[in-house]
Amino acid sequence: MAENVSQDEGKTLSHLWRNKESRAVIIQIVTLVVILIFIGLILRNISINLKAIGKDFNFDFLFIPAGYDITFQPILDYSPEDNHLWAGVIGIVNTLLVAISGIILATILGFTLGVLRLSSNWLINKMSYVFLEFTRNVPLLLHILFVHAIITHTLPIPKNAISLNDTFFLTNRAIYLPEPIFESGFWLTAVAFFAAIVFIYYFKIWAKKTQDETGQIYPVFWISVAALFGAPIIIFLVSGSPLSWGIPVLKGFNFKGGLAIRPEFIALWLALSYYTATYIAEIVRGGILAISYGQTEAASALGLRKNRVLQLILIPQTLRIIIPPLTSQYLNLTKNSSLAIAIGYMDVVATIGGISLMQTGKEVETMLIVLLTYLFFSLLISAIMNFFNRKIRFKER
Amino acid sequence: MKVFSKVILALVVSCAFVASATAGTLEDVKARGELRCVVTTGLVGFAFPDDAGQWNGFDVDFCRATAAAVLGDAKKVKFVTSTGKTRFTKLNAAEGDVLWRNTTITFSRDVNVKLTFVGVNYYDGQGFMVKKELGVKSATELDGATVCIQTGTTTELNLSDYFKQQNMKYEAVPIETNDEARSNYLSGRCDVYTTDASGLAATRAALPDPSAHVILPEIISKEPLGPAVRQGDDQWADIVRWVLNATITAEEKGVTSANADQMKSSNDQEIKRLLGVEGSQGKELGLSDDWAYNIIKQVGNYGEIFERNIGTSTKIGLARGLNGLWTKGGLQYSPPFR
Ligand SMILES: N[C@@H](CCC(=O)N[C@@H](CS)C(=O)NCC(=O)O)C(=O)O
Question: Of all protein residues, whose CA lies closest to atom 11 belonging to ligand 1?
Answer without folding.
Answer: B178
